[in-house]
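User: Design a sequence. Structure:
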């Protein structure tokens, strides 16, 4: 039986190397990259919340939007907003520009007896493809009050588990789970994959 788990998508942030556009709305093969991610997430998650301070941009998704409740705009504030908004005890939290999300890895992280479960890839911690419990909220608020805004700064104050992963073992499509859209080269790769010009590409 799959664990009870919401999904929170961090939809804030601009693609500074992609013309400063709202990352979630950058088009790939004629569709917002967020729409591609939702194609993967909707069949698994009954509860999906978007972290954004601009809900008018995302009305087309039909999803509830969670604004930042903390003072500094940051991914940590977005995580706090998501955990404050969800009904489920835990959420799989992912960046809006990660269409290679691994649903199997989300479910595996969710069964850990922990408040936070982060995959660790060869590149290091992957806090934007991780599972967090509502129980993290007080620790996040303490970190914010102390001016510690890094996504992993509060983990020492909660029951956190780091789960080593080989990205290839958790790849469920043409993209590795931790791929995110940052550069024009990344955008070109996504355009190629989603326009069907490349069969069985490995992504990264």
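Assistant: Done.
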């Amino acid at each position: 039986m799959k664990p009870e788990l919401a999904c929170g998508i961090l939809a804030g942030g601009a693609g500074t190397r992609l013309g400063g556009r709202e990352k979630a709305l950058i088009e790939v093969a004629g569709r917002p990259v967020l729409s591609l991610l939702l194609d993967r997430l909707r069949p698994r998650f009954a509860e999906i919340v978007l972290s954004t301070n601009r809900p008018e941009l995302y009305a087309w998704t039909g999803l509830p939007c969670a604004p930042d409740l903390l003072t500094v705009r940051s991914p940590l504030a977005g995580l706090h907003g998501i955990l404050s908004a969800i009904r489920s005890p835990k959420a799989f939290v992912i960046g809006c520009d990660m269409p290679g999300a691994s649903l199997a890895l989300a479910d595996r992280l969710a069964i850990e007896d922990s408040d936070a479960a982060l995959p660790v890839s060869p590149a290091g911690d992957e806090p934007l493809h991780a599972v967090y419990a509502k129980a993290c909220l007080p620790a996040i608020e303490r970190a914010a009050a102390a001016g510690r805004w890094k996504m992993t700064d509060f983990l020492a104050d909660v029951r956190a588990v780091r789960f080593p992963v080989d990205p290839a073992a958790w790849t469920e499509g043409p993209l590795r789970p931790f791929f995110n859209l940052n550069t024009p080269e990344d955008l070109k790769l996504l355009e190629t994959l989603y326009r069907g010009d490349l069969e069985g590409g490995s992504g990264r």
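The chain has a mean pLDDT of 91. The CA atoms of residues 69 and 190 lie 33 Å apart.
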